[in-house]
Write a structure and sequence with these properties.
Elements lengths: L13 H13 L6 H14 L10 H12 L5 E4 L5 H9 L3 E4 L11 H4 L7 E7 L8 H11 L2 E5 L1
Parallel strand pairs: 1-2, 1-3, 3-4
Helix pairs in contact: 3-4
Length: 154
Amino acid sequence: MERAIPGFKPALSRAESAALAQAFASGWVGTGLYAKLFERQFAAFAGARFATGTNSGTAALHLALRAAGVEGGEVITTPLTNAATSHAILYNRAAPVFCDVEAETGNIDPGKIESLITPRTRAIVAVHLHGRAAAMDAILALARRRRLRVVEDA
């Protein structure tokens, strides 16, 4: 008898569980009605004009970096994350530049980003690690000042 060790227990409300069951019962779990509805609602939640669902975080990073136009440039990020972050940067023909992290959170240290910016820097990938949000106010202020794109990886 095989026994599985769960990696996590989903935290879903009854309404969320019912919505998932309805989506699965419809037979459209990919790019159908429910995916389009999710994309519209997520865009509204994020204050964006558009949102695109993907099959993985890696695919999302790849597309976000492609949209940010990082090819041929450098992207500042943290070394303390899944390899998929750097892989997405490399796949977009850009070079990852690793920034030190905050000792308290393990997240990218916004105070150390600016010294890494060069004329080739195109973007910053801020990773929200272990349920702790990166210091986005400071990162976004720096990015606006230096005209850089920001991609959040959570």
